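Issue: ligand-bound run for 1,3-dihydroxyacetonephosphate - logging full I/O for the record.

Environment: standard queue, default settings, no custom constraints.

Inputs:
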Amino acid sequence: MRPTMVAGNWKMNGLSGDAVHLTQAILHAGLEPMRPEVVIFPPFTLLHAVSQEAKSSALRWGGQNLFWEASGAYTGEISGAMLRDMGCRYVLIGHSERRQIFAESDAQIVQKIKAALLSGLIPVVCVGETEAERAQGLTDAVLRRQLEAVLPLLNLEASQPNLIIAYEPVWAIGTGLSASPEQAQAVHVFIRELAAAYSAQLARRLLLLYGGSVKGNNAAALFDQADIDGALVGGASLQAGEFIQICRAAESAGRGG
Ligand SMILES: O=C(CO)COP(=O)(O)O
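Outputs:
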């Protein structure tokens, strides 16, 4: 399998001018449409600006989070319908920063995934172990717990998976210390095996992104791995040149070059 998605998670960064600049840089980079699919996840406040720039292109965008209720007295929250209204195709759910800083539980993440699916969004569900968990040999156990909540939501009636999984080891996020291609590949194989318990066909087609200090200079080696289908990029997605380099690495991997 070959990388099919490069996604940029801008986190809580950027003002309108930055959104226009970054989006235009990606649009003008001459990337091959959909090889890979390029997706950006700006803050909610920049979704409109991004959608205006990218609406007639192959570039896609999504929200970084959502709340599970459709509407109502939930001050400060954003629903799936609101994201759809901004033209979003995707939504990040369960990012480790949400799990750690905002104490999101596996049960809440399940509610969010259900709400996203009901709204017609494709959830990009983030999983991953902390440094302490890896040191204690708990990586598989943590991923199993996180994914046992998520994988039952796979639509077994469909021919294509209704969600995407991003493996983001917490120790690799924002540290400059990416997982090695072999480490990431081993975990991706494990995740695919867990998914195969629900459906072998969907497991084969499940998009597994790697995230954690992906840069222009390490992306190609990650994409060379058979089960790394793309990347979820944080810091480097805020620098147009770096992000475009990662997209090009995915293009080349897609050509077998
Ligand atoms: O959290 C991430 C993407 O969601 C990864 O962040 P970095 O690429 O900055 O390590």
